[in-house]
Design brief:
CATH superfamily of the largest domain: Nucleoside phosphorylase/phosphoribosyltransferase catalytic domain
Strand content: 15-25%
Bound molecules: uracil
Oligomer: single chain
Radius of gyration: 22 Å
Strand order of the largest sheet: 1-4-5-13
Number of domains: 3
CATH architecture of the largest domain: 3-Layer(aba) Sandwich
CATH topology of the largest domain: Pyrimidine Nucleoside Phosphorylase, Chain A, domain 2
Number of strands: 13
Order of helices and strands: HHHHEHEHHEHHEHEEHHHHEEHEEEHEE
Helix content: 40-55%
Structural class: alpha/beta
């Protein structure tokens, strides 16, 4: 095709639509290095400022899928369903959800990432389980889906390599927030992963990528459109991330709370979201069921033990405990307002998250809330406990919590599911 990167940048800069062929050419040549980072960052900025049509987003997603390998689970003889969350504080839903859905005979292929910044990564949480391995070959993924029915593992380098390159570039050029780029980035990986049904959990609020409902609504709509255009049965939930999800934030702490849910207990918000996302995944996969049953009767827990063992983990081994802890108590009487971002920052600072790609995380670091959003506290009562292996981190985290917690007038906790899109 006789075009140049500059022509395409100018076309997008001047608010014209790019064709399928042009987008394919752009992504192909960017992946192989013919188009430079300077040119691609200029294109990303033009997309951020001028947007993309539904067709352009579909072409972009397809081009990113075609930049690498795709998985195919049609030989499994069972339906597949997955979920993707845009990430939030205390968001451990994948842990109870994957075995719960698999316990109804629907395969869950979940290729995940590690955390960066204040939101934790699913792999970091699983890696807090002694012996558990994140890396599997494509054949091992297929075999585990056939036998156990659920896999949570690291996405290999072969999956949507164009996205890896573009995401790293967006990160340093102020173009992460472009809805067409976020949507095609998320969906290219999910579609390449081979799932036939997908539930998107788009978080909204201070602890999320999307701070307001309008932005989140736009992203969710675009994600659902891409899914439908690619023959993946897709639904989206907009869910509250103005306050942490559950009471435990941090890697091993979130495994602990997930085990409470799998044992039929756990905090109401975590249980509700797990059950409702599971119900939707099962529905999209053609199974009508009440997922709360397999949480109560132990079948989801049995599946968890099987799933962890299949990846070398010992589900019965004790989890790491932190060397140091600190209590935060109420300085006055009143109702609590707990901000998700501040608690996420505290947990990250205590060692649960990483500042740089590739850095180590602490298994046991994090925050345990004794009181949650909207609850009454009396002066001197315990609000939360901070845990870390590095005592010097406590001071900064205490300051984060002081900023995150307000005690005052009665406030209502928002519903956990703000909107459903089907
Ligand atoms: N998550 C992704 O995978 N991609 C984005 O662009 C943003 C969040």
């Amino acid at each position: 095709m006789a075009v140049s990167a500059v022509e395409l940048i100018v076309k997008k800069r001047d608010k014209h639509e790019l064709s399928n062929q042009e987008i394919q050419w752009l992504i192909e040549n960017y992946t192989t290095g013919q188009i430079t980072d300077e040119q691609m960052s200029s294109m990303a900025m033009a997309i951020l400022l001028n947007g993309m049509s539904r067709d352009e987003v579909r072409f972009l997603t397809q081009a990113m899928i075609e930049s690498g390998e795709t998985m195919n689970f049609s030989g499994l003889d069972k339906p597949t369903a997955d979920k993707h969350s845009t990430g939030g504080v205390g968001d451990k839903i994948t842990l109870p959800l994957a075995p719960l859905v698999a316990s109804y005979g629907v395969a869950v292929p979940q290729l995940s990432g590690r955390g960066l910044g204040h939101t934790g990564g699913t792999l970091d949480k699983f890696e807090a389980i002694p012996g558990w391995q994140a890396s599997l070959s494509n054949q091992q993924i297929f075999d585990q889906l056939k036998t156990v029915g659920a896999v949570v593992c690291a996405a290999g380098d072969g999956l949507a390599p164009a996205d890896k390159k573009l995401y790293a570039l967006r990160d340093v050029t102020g173009t992460v927030e472009a809805t067409p780029l976020i949507a095609s980035s998320i969906m290219s990986k999910k579609i390449a992963e081979g799932t036939k049904a997908l539930v998107l959990d788009v978080k909204v609020g201070s602890g999320a990528f999307m701070k307001d409902l309008e932005q989140a609504d736009k992203l969710a709509n675009t994600l659902v459109e891409i899914g439908r255009d690619s023959s993946v049965a897709t639904s989206a939930f907009l869910t509250d991330m103005s306050t942490p999800l559950g009471k435990k934030i941090g890697n091993a702490l979130e495994v602990e709370e997930s085990l409470e849910v799998l044992a039929g207990g756990g905090p109401a918000d975590v249980v509700e979201l797990t059950v409702e996302i599971a119900r939707e995944m099962l529905k999209l996969a053609g199974v009508e069921a009440d997922p709360s049953e397999n949480l109560k009767n132990g079948k989801a827990m049995d599946k968890w033990v099987e799933m962890v063992a299949a990846q070398g983990g010992d589900a019965h081994a004790p989890l790491d405990k932190a060397k140091h802890s600190e209590s935060v108590v109420a300085e006055t009487d009143g109702y609590l307002n707990i901000d998700a971002l501040g608690v996420g920052m505290a947990s990250w600072r205590l060692g649960a998250g990483r500042e740089k790609q590739g850095a180590e995380v602490q298994n046991a670091a994090g925050v345990v809330l004794n009181k949650t959003q909207g609850e009454w506290v009396s002066k001197g009562e315990l609000i939360c406990e901070l845990f870390t292996d590095a005592e010097q981190k406590i001071e900064g985290a205490t300051m984060d919590i002081a900023q995150a917690v307000e005690i005052g007038e009665k406030i209502e906790r928002k519903p956990i599911i703000l909107k459903e899109m089907r």
